[in-house]
Specification:
This protein has 455 residues and is mainly alpha-helical. It has a domain of 299 residues. The chain is built from 20 helices and 4 strands. The strands form 2 sheets. Strands 1-4 form a two-stranded antiparallel ribbon. Strands 2-3 form a two-stranded antiparallel ribbon. The radius of gyration is 21 Å and the shape is globular. The termini are far apart. InterPro entries: Azg-like, Azg-like_bact_archaea, NCS2.
Length: 455
């Protein structure tokens, strides 16, 4: 273990690494409850998604441990799973397309393959660097607002309104009250530096929900989507995941739509992964003297192979988790931390009834808090810079929640940036990467105007 992970060289011990790995797992295990909840909205089987989420997290995190020796864990990405379900699958289903999640999984598979190719070169880092900083921060903040909206809607805190489009839900429902209590609990525990605050917030909300069910406040009504919160059993053999369930037939007739879907997955995952790796490495003093990430290629390849594996077993894009910083804060410095987290995900695989009994309103606090963290990137936007930069960030932030689509935010953010640069006489500042992005999204808008594909 010392020979492979170089514990002494990194100033750590086996016990420290194991504790750090458990800490990372506790800080991100909420994904095992959240991901089946979100992808069920895409028409996927929740139990199968749970299995795919746990298995892919285990394998991808082991990739990171052995490819890069970093204390970073991976799992299905927040924001990317919301894009998968709400921006891709649900609009397709409304357009009459059967099993749209099979098309979305195909897009994730292609994205992963492209990422492998990009990770073998320096192009992936170059792509990140050539997108305006303001737009990057705007996209992150927009995704944060979108995730919050998904969570608020799931708990009935925000409801639809024919008069005002959206409205405040019924404040006295157990879903509304308990979701807010859970969010306040997470914030309070974060303030007190409690490890695994997000997980504890979910569990507290769920336990209070069980009490509400037993006392008659929460009424079980499967027809209305209100299921019993008490798991029928604790231990279970994992359900078979959606292995190899891809639909490539639709792609040949809807190539532009498919390219936009794939590019949006690619784009969001790109910044999520690189930003997370740099952030976690910086927190653990793992960057070199020039501020660069050693063994970056191995880390990026681990992320890419994790995405491919995740698509094959049936889950949305797998990516590096910023919650890994919790393990780093606990002393984690090597891949042994990641191995420990991977083992914990493998063990959790056999307790699916517990995780699947956790209701949507109990995961709302987690979505709200993750959204809060992502929205905080807005403070990095330079509002005194070129109007093209600020307008692009603004479009990304506003279009995502207000059009209920992450892809729309990216699309209008990039298009507005290129157009305003051209109008402002700064066409030389538009890189080839941005021109390609502009052309792709312009084609997408053309298909929407012509009524081609889904909306």
């Amino acid at each position: 273990m010392e020979k492979f992970f170089k514990l002494k060289e990194h100033g750590t011990t086996t016990s420290t690494e194991i504790i750090a790995g458990i800490t990372t797992f506790l800080s991100m295990v909420y994904i095992l409850a959240v991901n089946p909840n979100i992808l069920s909205a895409a028409g996927m089987d929740g139990a199968a998604v749970f299995t795919a989420t746990a298995v892919s997290a285990t394998v991808a995190t082991l990739f990171m441990a052995f490819f890069a020796n970093y204390p970073v864990a991976l799992a299905s990405g927040m924001g990317l799973n919301a894009y998968f379900a709400y921006s891709v699958c649900i609009p397709m289903a409304k357009a009459g397309i059967n099993d749209p999640w099979k098309i979305a999984l195909a897009a994730v598979l292609i994205e992963g393959i492209v990422f492998v190719l990009l990770s073998l070169t320096s192009f992936r880092e170059k792509l990140v660097n050539e997108v305006p900083a303001n737009l990057k921060y705007g996209i992150t903040a927009g995704i944060g607002l979108f995730i919050v909206l998904v969570g608020l809607k799931g708990a009935g805190i925000v409801i639809s309104s024919t008069a005002t489009l959206v409205d405040l839900g019924h404040v006295g429902t157990p879903q509304f009250v308990l979701a807010m209590i859970g969010f306040f609990c997470i914030c309070a525990m974060v303030r007190k530096n409690v490890p695994g605050a997000v997980l504890w917030g979910i569990l507290i909300t769920w336990i209070l929900g069980i009490i509400a069910e037993k006392t008659g406040w929460y009424h079980v009504d499967p027809a209305a989507g209100a299921f019993s919160l008490v798991p029928a059993k604790i231990f279970s053999i994992p359900s078979a995941p959606h292995i190899g369930q891809f639909d490539f037939a639709w792609i040949s007739q809807n190539l532009i739509n498919f390219l936009v879907i794939t590019f949006s997955f690619l784009f969001v995952d790109l910044f999520d992964t690189v930003g997370t790796l740099i952030g976690v490495a910086s927190k653990g003093n793992l960057l070199d003297e020039n501020g660069n990430l050693p063994r970056a290629k191995g880390a990026l390849l681990a992320d890419a192979f994790g995405t491919i594996f995740g698509a094959i077993v049936g889950t949305s894009t797998v990516t590096s988790y910023v919650e890994s910083s919790a393990g780093v804060a606990a002393g984690g410095r090597t891949g042994l931390t990641a191995v420990t987290s991977a083992v914990m995900f493998a063990v959790a695989l056999f307790f699916s009834p517990v995780f699947l009994a956790i209701p949507g309103f109990a995961t709302t606090p987690a979505l709200m808090y993750v959204g809060l963290l992502m929205v905080s990137s807005i403070k990095n936007i330079d509002f005194d810079s070129d109007i093209a930069d600020t307008a692009a960030a603004f479009c990304a932030i506003t279009f995502m929640p207000f059009t209920y689509s992450i892809a729309n935010g990216i699309m209008f953010g990039m298009i507005s940036w290129v157009l305003l640069k051209v109008i402002g006489g700064k066409i030389k500042e538009v890189s080839p990467v941005m021109w390609v992005s502009f052309a792709l999204f312009a084609l997408r808008i053309g298909t929407l105007i012509a009524g081609i594909g889904f909306h």
